[in-house]
Each structure stands twice: as C-alpha cells, then as structure tokens.
Write a sequence for this structure.
C-alpha cells in the first residue's frame, strides 16, 4: 500500500494537489505569524484590571500540580473555573492591599529567598541553584521576586485575620461542653431476618416492580475485541543460549567478582616503647591467662591496652577485608574462630592479643542460583533489538492491514479474544484506560479499523479491533426475576422489622410492660452510658450520630427510632446528657484546642472579608479560550 502511494504521487494531478496543500499550509502559517502579534482578549476583568489567558494557563498548571496523578480524571471546565476564581481572589486581595498601602520590603524578600531550603545545598544558599530553580518554573529572577513579594503581601492580610482573633475562656468552656459531651442511652436493635418467609411473592408483584424500575436493570454497552500482544518475554523464549555459553559467562563473572568478605576484630596492645619485646610478650601472656580464667576481653582492653582509643571501645579496631590491619594480625585472624582470642602477636606496633568478633563471608552464589539471571542477561540485548524491529512492523501492519490475521501470520502472534467489557474496563490489559479508550474510539468501534499500537508497558504492546459491539439494553424479566425477588423480600423484611419496632415504641410510650413482647421476639435492651459523639467501638456510629441529634431530655427519657443502612430497625431511649468539662482536658490539649479554634475563627473572618471584596468588586468573566486538553496529564 505504501509503495502504491509513492508510485501514484509522481503524477501531474498529485503534484497539483500537493501544491494546493503547501499553499494552504503557507497561508495558515502566515495567519499564525500575524495572529501572534494580536493580543488575545482577557478571560476576566477585576475592577478594570485584566486577567489574561497566559495567567490562567499558569494557574491551571499550578492547580493540577497540587492535585497529583488523579488530576486527569477531573472535569477540565471545573479545573479551569477553580483556577480562574483563585486568580480573581488574588487580584481583589492585592488591590485591597495596595489601597491600604501594604508592602513587602526588598530586604525581606531577599531574606526569604536566602532562607528557602529549595535554594540551599547542605543548608547553605546557592545562587546557581536558585537561578536554575526559578528558570525551571518559567521565571526570571526579577519575575520570581515580584511574584514572591505579591504572595507575601497577600499572606500578610490572611495572617492578620488568623493572628488577631482570640477565644475567651467562656467560649472555650462552652465549646468543650459540646465537644466532650456524652450521653446515656439504651436501645433495642431489630435486625431483618425471616419474619416474612411465609408470605409468597407473586409473579405479578415481581412484574410490576420490573416495569417501574427498568432502568435499574440496564446493561451498559460493551465490546468484545480480538487482539494481539507483542511481548519481550515471549521473544526471549524463542532465543536459545547454549549451556556452555551460560557456564562460560558464569565463570567470567565469578572470576571478576570481588567478594565482600569482612572480619571485625578487637585487640589489646602492649607497646614495646620503653620496655623490651620479651617483657611485652610476658604481659600479653599474663592477660591471656586472665581471659582464660573468665575475665571480660573488653574490660581488660580498657584496663591494659596501650591503644587507649580502642580500649574505650572494648578493644574494637573495626573491619578488614584482609588488607586493613598489619599482616601479622591479618594472619592471626585467618586462623581464629569467631570469638576466639589469639596468642601474642608481634607487629611493628608491639605485641597484640587479637579477638575475632565478626566474620562475614559473601561467596559468589552457585551456578544453579544465577543461571536463569545470566540467561536473561545474555538474551536481553538481542531481545530488545528484535522487539524494537517487530514493534515497527506491528505499527505498519496495524495501519496497512484490514484485520489481525496478517499481523498474526507475519509476526507469529496468536489472535486472542477478550471477554465483553464496558467503558469502565475489564480484566488483564483491558484494565488499562488507554486500551479501553482505543476500543471505544470512533476509528475502531464505528469505522472498523485496527487500533494504533498500544504500548502497555516497556516490554509489551498490543493492537486490537472490535469483534462485537453490544448496545446498552434492559435485561429481560426472566433474567432478573430472582434478583427482584430478593429485593422485594428484603423490603418486606425491612417493613416487618419497622412494624415490630413501632409496636414496641407504641407500647413503651403508653406505659405497657414490654417484657412479654420483647421475649416473644427475642429482643432485649442494650444499655450504654457516657456514649461519645463518635460512638467509639461500643456503639454503631449511625446510632451515636442519631442520639446526638436528639433534644436534651427534661423530666422523662426521650424515645426515637431509626433504620440503619443494613435494614436494622433501632429503637433508642435517651436518658441523660452529660456536658463535657474543661477541667477534664489537660493543659497542653487546652492550649492546642484554643489555638486551633482561634485559627478557625480567624480563617472564617478572612473568608468573609474576601467575600465582601468580591461582592463590592466589578468582575467580568469572558468565555475562556484556554484548551485544557493539553494541560491535563
């Protein structure tokens, strides 16, 4: 096909068409160049000050960066709207600061930059790093300083509100009374069970439910695709490595391997400075006898060793790979078992008693343990070359061929068939959003083309085409009849539990004796005192939340009911409300609580101030031309 295109492109008509295309591109290019000098309209105006598209783009990018990898799932219009609102807030705040003659000095800006960890290396400011960091953010140094000064000025306003608020002791006490409040309750739980098993569910009732709730049984549209996968692991299986080649590489690696065997030693040194070698040897022998009698090596090193530095460490002189210590000590260590002490060893430094304290051997692993890894290493470069070549062939064949059989024959790839999956994806490679998007793209789904090559990861790629498209449909009644029966039975059980609960509640409020009714239905009161707002581990959170929504009881306990999410009907009796006490809160927690509440109040004041600025400002928002398709990752 590609050759036909090349052959046909040599004709006169083809050259005329190509000429027209070139002319169109030339005109488009001229228009683009001219358009580059024409200012785009502002996306908003705040009190006559324009916010341009470039500012909005930067605000969107900054916002997306704070959202992390999930930003791509957000609605682009929503992201743009949030970013524009942030810009408007900044402008109205800055204008208010300028009207109030607020400013940040150059010295303070410089000090902030000097103290910023992102511009420091080992705690010291580095100018080159600072310039590179600013440049990576798309700013020159003056631009960065201007932006920083503006943000510092805006933070002054926010901090002024947050820092100037305060909390009185009465307000703190009142708040603690509410937050630390507990309640005394008892309740009866009536779970759904088998109260309605004797009542049959008619086909007519099932049919009526089906007709009234058909959308609940709608199956989404799905596709079944045929696909091929190019896999480096499969290619590796095609390549054979001779056993002698594996063994040769193993011997090469083992020969090049430098074992990391290390030994750790301690010593007691008797220097020969000022005494004869024989006297030093006698001192060493006497010390060894003391060791043999059970005295501790570290204690003797501290007492006797001329090497006072190692003596303070129990005689420890560190690790050796066979070359760190004098040859005489290395030879002695080679003969010692772990924990054993040598006889007197003479070196240029004096006479030593040497103890082996650690011995780590890192021998090269046997062939059986590393042969699989060596085989992968030997194959890897060849596999990557073959994979790269076949990937190019796969791309060309996917474009040129009208089915997958040609790809399968030429690249020896089996054609696989998926299970049906919808736009939410399926199993295996169809959990990849890019693969799902390709399957439901217009080119593949409606035009019947092969997909482009889909690189699943660094070692696998796939091409797919739709085999079958299943439109969204309502499942037939016969297929969902059992499901509807379960739903109706559950609803009947909920109603039965609620009816029994209301019967108990009516009896309770009328002053009747409940013992017989509770016993007949195997129910009992559960009593809980001092229940907190979160319920803890004792009380279901749904019950505790409901209890704290009830009014304070006056003379008599209050009664109420609720149905839990699992269908259980709960009858609640609230007997007492116990206010929290500031005296029960430790002093440090009081301070933390007061600071947190004060900051919250200050933030609320700041938000109200900002809202007032916005309400009093003349804000005009234009239809933005920013394309978030390029911004979203």
């Amino acid at each position: 096909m590609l050759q036909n295109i090349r052959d046909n492109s040599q004709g006169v008509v083809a050259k005329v068409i190509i000429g027209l295309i070139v002319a169109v591109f030339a005109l488009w290019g001229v228009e683009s160049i001219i358009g580059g000098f024409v200012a785009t309209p502002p996306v908003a105006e705040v009190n006559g000050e324009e916010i341009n598209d470039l500012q909005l783009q930067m605000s969107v990018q900054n916002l997306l960066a704070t959202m992390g990898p999930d930003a791509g799932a957000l609605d682009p219009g929503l992201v743009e709207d949030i970013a524009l609102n942030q810009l408007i807030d900044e402008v109205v705040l800055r204008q208010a600061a300028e009207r109030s003659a607020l400013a940040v000095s150059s010295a303070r800006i410089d000090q902030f930059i000097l103290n910023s960890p992102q511009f420091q290396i080992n705690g010291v400011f580095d100018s080159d790093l600072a310039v590179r960091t600013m440049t990576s953010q798309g700013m020159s140094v003056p631009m960065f300083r201007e932006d920083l000064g503006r943000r510092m000025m805006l933070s002054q306003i926010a901090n002024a509100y947050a820092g100037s608020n305060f909390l009185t002791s009465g307000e703190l006490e009142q708040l603690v009374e509410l937050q630390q409040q507990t309640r005394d309750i008892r309740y009866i739980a009536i779970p759904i069970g088998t109260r309605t098993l004797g009542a049959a569910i008619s086909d007519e009732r099932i049919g009526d439910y089906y007709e009234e709730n058909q959308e609940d049984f709608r199956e989404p549209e799905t596709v079944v695709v045929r696909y091929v996968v190019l896999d480096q692991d499969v290619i590796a299986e095609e390549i054979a490595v001779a056993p002698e080649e594996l063994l040769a590489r193993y011997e090469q690696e083992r020969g090049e391997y430098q074992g990391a065997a290390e030994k750790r030693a301690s010593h007691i040194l008797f220097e020969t400075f000022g005494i004869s070698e024989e006297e030093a040897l006698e001192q060493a022998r006497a010390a060894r006898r003391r060791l043999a009698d059970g005295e501790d090596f570290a204690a003797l090193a501290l007492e006797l060793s001329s090497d006072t530095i190692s003596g303070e460490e129990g005689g420890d002189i560190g690790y050796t790979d066979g070359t760190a210590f004098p040859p005489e000590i290395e030879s002695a260590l080679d003969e010692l078992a772990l924990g054993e002490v040598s006889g007197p060893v003479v070196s240029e430094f004096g006479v030593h008693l040497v103890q082996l304290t650690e011995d780590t051997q890192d021998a090269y692993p046997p062939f059986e343990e590393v042969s699989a890894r060596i085989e992968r290493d030997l194959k890897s470069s060849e596999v990557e070359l073959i994979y790269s070549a076949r990937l190019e062939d796969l791309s060309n064949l996917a474009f040129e061929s009208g089915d997958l059989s040609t790809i399968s024959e030429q690249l020896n790839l089996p054609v696989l068939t998926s299970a049906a999956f919808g736009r939410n994806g399926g199993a295996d490679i169809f959990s990849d959003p890019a693969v799902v998007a390709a399957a439901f793209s217009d080119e593949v789904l409606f035009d019947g083309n092969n997909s482009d090559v889909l690189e699943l990861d660094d070692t696998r790629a796939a091409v797919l085409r739709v085999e079958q498209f299943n439109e969204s449909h309502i499942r037939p009644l016969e297929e969902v009849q059992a499901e509807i029966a379960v739903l109706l039975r559950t609803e009947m059980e909920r109603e039965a539990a609620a009816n029994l609960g209301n019967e108990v509640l009516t009896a309770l409020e009328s002053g009747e004796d409940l013992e017989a009714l509770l016993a007949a239905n195997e129910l009992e009161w559960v009593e809980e005192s001092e229940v907190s707002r979160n319920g803890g581990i004792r009380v279901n959170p749904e019950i505790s939340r409901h209890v704290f929504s009830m009014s304070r009881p006056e003379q008599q306990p209050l009664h109420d009911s609720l149905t839990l999410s699992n269908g259980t009907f709960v009858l609640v009796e609230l007997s007492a409300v116990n206010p929290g006490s500031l005296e029960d809160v430790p002093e440090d927690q009081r301070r933390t609580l007061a600071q947190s509440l004060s900051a919250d109040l200050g933030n609320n004041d700041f938000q109200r101030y900002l809202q007032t600025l916005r309400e009093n400002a003349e804000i005009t928002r234009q239809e933005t031309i920013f394309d978030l398709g390029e911004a979203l990752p």
Q: What stands out?
A: The CA atoms of residues 117 and 218 lie 56 Å apart. The longest strand covers residues 350-360.
